[in-house]
Design brief:
The protein is an alpha/beta fold. It is built from 13 helices and twelve strands. A seven-stranded mixed sheet has the order 2-8-7-6-5-3-4, sandwiched between helices. Strands 9-12-11 form a three-stranded antiparallel sheet, with helices on one face. The chain has a two-stranded parallel sheet with strand order 1-10. Strand 3, helix 5 and strand 4 form a beta-alpha-beta unit. The longest helix is centred in the last third of the chain and has 21 residues. The structure holds pyridoxal-5'-phosphate.
């Protein structure tokens, strides 16, 4: 967001800035979802809903979880103000002072802050040497008697790495001997997977651990609904009930009209999801092929989400910048290309480039990067 603010300030001065910084789809919310919200507006919508969300939306979210192989029924589903809020609720009820939470790095920026807000201690596991896949060995190396939660995020932000069923099953086996650990699985990029990769929910890959997994999902990324703020979670009844009580005192229900829109997203036609996915895939291929043409920049082709996370360590130096942060700052100042330095995600030496933008911007931005590196 800081990079985005700087890019916006440059744009306000009339500069043409290429924005690879942003973490949201550039598509508009599909028309049938907006229509459902308009229809809802003409009804009796301006009232509190139940704290955990309307029963229709909880049913729809439970059905979506079941379709992924996650055991869920409406009574164990909580609707929150975005996946972020669902994750926050989960960490606030699961984590007590000094409890440890394992976070594979690179990670989405909010996990450590949420863990710290709950009084917990983030424990990072570097996955950059394993193509950003958490291995059972690395996981076991991070577990201690104080470990309360392991956070998983597949497809992942910022790396795009997507764990296979076998990889998750191996993590499940590693956790079998640690019954006090809860898995918090953030599956917000579920519908954005490409090529040979397939999305698998952690609880579906590890049925024996489903009872101690909290699964989080939402409509923001898959349905181009970031501003509507609807996410949802399921897990063990006592955990979900605690999350509902916490949400009840913190925020009450998510906005009624957004819930009506999310219901249309989960129960309506799915063509727009596939159209957006196919467009992201095309842009992913374009960006990865252009980045491959930049000498010294190393990239694992991402198979999910909408980010490339190239390794620029071989390019760092006195003239390009000694850290990814300096590199990104100079790239913005000199070539007007905005991206997010890996430090923000616990991945120093890397850059996150979002391809949630038009083909022309991808071409122009990668050409400017190549010029800068040259
Ligand atoms: N989880 C991850 C990995 C994300 O990248 C994001 C948004 O960037 C979120 C959760 C938050 O999603 P929401 O907009 O539904 O709160």
């Amino acid at each position: 967001m800081a990079v985005d603010a700087k890019a916006k300030a440059l744009r306000a001065k009339g500069e043409r800035v290429i924005g690879f910084g942003i973490g949201e789809p550039d598509f508009d919310t599909p028309a049938h979802i907006k229509e459902a919200a308009k229809r809802a507006l003409d009804g009796r919508i301006g009232f509190y809903t139940p704290v955990a969300g309307t029963m229709e939306l909880r049913e729809a979210a439970a059905a979506a979880f079941r379709a992924d192989g996650v055991p869920a029924e409406a009574a164990r589903v909580l609707i929150s103000c975005g996946a972020k809020h669902a994750l926050y609720n989960a960490l606030m009820v699961l984590v007590d002072d000094a409890d440890e939470v394992v976070i594979p790095a690179p990670f989405w920026v909010s996990y450590p802050a949420m863990v710290e807000a709950a009084g917990g201690v983030p424990v990072y596991v570097d996955t950059s040497a394993d193509r950003f896949i958490l291995t059972p060995e690395k996981l076991l190396g991070a577990l201690t008697p104080r470990t309360k939660v392991v956070v998983l995020n597949s497809p992942g932000n910022p790396s795009g790495a997507t764990h296979s069923r076998e990889q998750f099953a191996a993590l499940g086996e590693a956790l079998a001997g640690h019954p006090g650990v809860t898995v918090l699985s953030d599956e917000i990029y579920q519908h954005l997977v490409y090529e040979g990769a397939a999305f698998i929910s952690f609880a579906a890959a590890c049925p024996a651990l489903a009872a101690r997994t909290v699964t989080v999902n939402g409509v923001s990324k898959s349905y181009a609904m970031t501003g509507w703020r609807i996410g949802y979670a399921t897990g063990a009844k006592d955990v979900v009930d605690a999350m509902i009580r916490f949400q009840s005192h913190a925020t009450s229900n998510p906005t009624a009209i957004a819930q009506a829109a999310a219901l249309a997203a989960l129960t309506g036609p799915r063509e727009s999801v596939e159209t957006m996915r196919a467009t992201f895939d095309r842009r992913r291929r374009l960006m990865t092929s252009l980045l491959a043409d930049i000498p010294g920049l190393a990239l694992h082709r991402p198979d999910g989400a909408f980010y490339c996370f190239p390794d620029v360590r071989a390019l760092l130096g006195p003239r390009t910048g000694r850290t990814a942060l300096e590199f990104a700052t100079q790239l913005l100042e000199r070539e007007r290309v905005a991206c997010v330095p890996g430090e923000a995600f616990g991945g120093p030496g890397f850059l996150r480039l979002s391809y949630a933008c038009g083909d022309a911007d991808i071409e122009e931005g990668c050409a400017r990067m190549k010029k800068y590196v040259g």
